[in-house]
Structures are given as C-alpha cells and as structure tokens.
Design brief:
The chain is α+β, with helices and mostly antiparallel strands. The protein has ten helices and 18 strands.
C-alpha cells in the first residue's frame, strides 16, 4: 500500500492563526505515519510555503506542489485546518476544485454560505424542531436608527459580525444606550452585522461527520461560561469556561438533537466534519440554532477531539476516515 502525500493546510489571514497552527500540530501527530506523509503548508497573506529544516520552500500555485531536493511533490489530498478566510469561506476549496485536489471540508458553496450567519439561518429555519433567535441584519453603508433596532427586538441583544468564524467583535447589550458602541465594535470586524435576541439557556456544541458513508453525530459538549457570554476570550483563555463532554442530557433529548443536527448537515450539503453550536432554551429545552463551523478547531483540547475520544474512537482513525471518505 502506497503512502499518500497530505498537504495539511494551516495559518490563514485572521486572528485565529495560532489556533490553526495548534490544530495542524495535533492532526499531524495523530495521523498514521505509515499511511500518510504529512506536509504542513502555511498560508499567510503574501505567500504559501512549507518549512524545511534549512528554511522554507514556496508552493507552486499552478499545480499546488512543492519541490524538495530537486524532486517535485504533488499532493493526493489537502487537509484544511484554517479557521476563517481563506480556508473556511470557500476560497481555498474553489482553488482545489479547479486543480482536482480532494479535501476534507465542505465544498466552496457550503463553506461560503455557512460563513454568513444570516444566510445559514435562512436555510435551516424550516427544519422540524429547530428554532432561531429573532434578528436583524445591518449593512455598514445603511443608516442605523438605534430606535428602530430597539423597537424591533427584545433586550438583551447580541451584536455580532455576520461573517467570520471567530467570536471577535461580539457584544451583549442590555438597553438602547449600549447599542451605538456595540454596533461600531462589530462593524470594525465586518461590513454586515447581526443583531439578535439573547436566548437564555444551556449552550452546547456537537460534531457531525460522515464516516464510512454514514452521518455520525458525536457526543455533545456543554459549554458553561463564567463570563457573560462565550466570546473569544472565554473560548481561548484557561478557566473562563468549563466544557463537559459528554453533556448531561436525557437520552430522548440527545436523540432528538442528533436528528436535528443530521438534518442541518444534509440541508446545508455539508461534507467531512463540522461542529454545530446550539442552545437549549431554559425550562422548555427547545433547540435554538446558533451556527455551524465547517473547519472546527482540532488542537488536543478542542471540542471535536474531546467528542471523538468520548465516543470511544481513535482520533488518528477518525482523521484517516475523513481522508479516505473524500478520496
């Protein structure tokens, strides 16, 4: 059996560069070295390169290859682990499609759509048992009448950039006076933003992947944040939140959630592994959809690796199956 050359694509153009690098290290350490020869390819704004012991080699973008010691290496597969642009928003997927290189994530269309929170909500809204928070989408070029926003929705409100996988630029606002500053903060990150009603309840995140041709819903993680909400700081600083995997949920609720998540995966035409965030409403436990992450974090402490371990699966085999299924 021949080993396959894997381009493990990491880095990217956002504040989550370091998270991506950590994800890549964990994936590289987990993959079966007998089956896969892994080359970590770093993408930054002005170059794509592979780091060697003696320096670095640029990627030839004409055919997505590198040349090492006079020998040209082409890749059988791209394992994308970039959070945000250009690896989560469909740009890299479109490039790889044109070259005929298979990859582990959703396709270009799904990746682009799911980066837009409002478009994603519109597509999944009619799924049985799924609820979404009432919201308004604002564009930077429009005039923003704070009074209209305040009259349309019930406080407290979440203000967040519409694009972008990370939690940068988010605010929670309790009254109209707090709106102008929150809008400015979000518009610093994106030209369109989402203002939505705050849903009070328990927050969860759950991986979904196609393995051996079947859609598998991983055990749920409950996220208990010690801050007012799960922002970038709560996500990436030690002790700001507690994660419980598998989450404490009644069996019937667990099954119902798995059905909804499977339907989201199918409806959005997802591929590979995704992670879907949701809230179960206080008292009723109604399912409220938050968002879908199409390149979820893969560092050792990240949610998907936690869930894979909780399901009794080997992480290296899990990644291997994502590669095998896509090739």
């Amino acid at each position: 059996m021949s080993t396959k050359n894997i381009a493990l694509v990491a880095g990217g153009f956002t504040g989550e560069y370091e998270v991506s690098i950590n994800s890549a290290k964990n994936i590289a350490a987990s993959l079966n070295a007998e089956k896969y020869k892994v080359y970590t390819i770093l993408l930054v704004r002005d170059r794509w390169f592979y780091e060697t012991d003696g320096g670095s080699v640029d990627v030839d973008k004409n055919d997505f290859s590198i040349t090492l010691g006079g020998k040209k290496i082409k890749f059988d597969f791209a394992f994308i682990t970039i959070h945000g642009t250009p690896g989560e928003d469909g740009k890299l997927q479109g490039y790889l499609d044109m070259l005929g290189v298979p990859y582990n994530t959703c396709d270009a269309t799904t990746s682009a759509i799911t980066m837009n929170k409002a478009y994603t909500k519109a597509l999944v809204e009619s799924i049985h048992g799924l609820h979404t928070a009432r919201s308004l989408r604002l564009f930077e070029r429009d005039m923003h009448d704070v009074a209209i926003v305040a009259a349309s929705l019930k406080f407290p409100l979440f203000i967040k950039p519409n694009n972008g996988g990370s939690s940068v630029g988010m605010s929670k606002v309790y009254n109209p006076a707090g709106l102008p500053e929150a809008l400015t903060k979000a518009f610093n990150e994106d030209s369109q933003i989402l203002v939505e009603e705050f849903i009070k309840g328990r927050e969860f995140s759950r991986g979904v992947a196609r393995l051996h041709g079947k859609i598998v819903v991983l055990p749920a993680t409950e996220i208990i944040s010690f801050k007012d909400f799960f922002d970038y700081e709560a996500k990436y600083s030690a002790g700001a939140s507690e994660e419980i995997t598998p989450a404490d949920l009644p069996a019937d609720k667990n099954d119902q959630i798995a059905e909804i998540l499977t339907e989201i995966y199918l409806r959005l035409n997802c591929k590979g592994m995704v992670r879907i965030d949701f809230i179960l409403l206080e008292d009723t436990l109604d399912f409220y959809f938050i968002e879908v992450n199409t390149t979820p974090g893969q560092s050792a402490a990240s949610l998907i690796p936690q869930q894979v371990r909780a399901a009794g699966m080997d992480l290296g085999e899990f990644y291997g199956e994502l590669i095998g299924g896509a090739i």
